[in-house]
Write a structure and sequence with these properties.
Elements (H helix, E strand, L loop, with lengths): L1 H54 L6 H20 L3 H22 L8 H14 L2
Helix pairs in contact: 1-2, 1-4, 2-3, 3-4
Length: 130
């Protein structure tokens, strides 16, 4: 009876170790996913700021640049922390959309179309969501 109890205890210990191993290995992936979600959330806030800045560009044109800078900073953080192909593509698409808004502003467009930025940010949020 005692031998059976020891075998059962040993079996539980092995199962527990096998269950814990993937959890420990996956912890880094979970951490990266959380970083992605947090950065995507910050980007969403920056996109909202960008929309408001474009609407109020006549009052303070520097707000638009500040919003674009904030988005780019968060994109750099996400890009540095992930090797996920879908996330990297979404980051690239959003970077391109931000660049297009910057170009439009430099070319004199006082109310550039920010919908591609909004769409790309939405895609990034979708691929970052675990």
């Amino acid at each position: 009876m005692a031998a059976r109890h020891r075998r059962r205890t040993a079996a539980f210990a092995v199962v527990a170790a096998l269950v814990a191993l993937p959890a420990a290995v996956g912890c880094d992936a979970v951490s990266k996913a959380l970083d992605c979600v947090q950065a995507a959330d910050s980007i969403a806030d920056s996109v909202t700021d960008l929309q408001q800045a474009v609407e109020n560009a006549a009052n303070d044109p520097t707000q638009t640049d500040e919003s674009l800078d904030a988005i780019e900073k968060n994109l750099d953080e996400i890009g540095d922390k992930t090797d996920n192909t879908d996330v990297n593509k979404a980051v690239d698409d959003l970077s391109e959309a931000v660049g297009n808004v910057r170009t439009a502003i430099k070319n004199g467009d006082e109310t550039p179309d920010v919908s591609p930025v909004t769409d790309a940010a939405g895609e990034l949020t979708k691929v970052c969501t675990p």
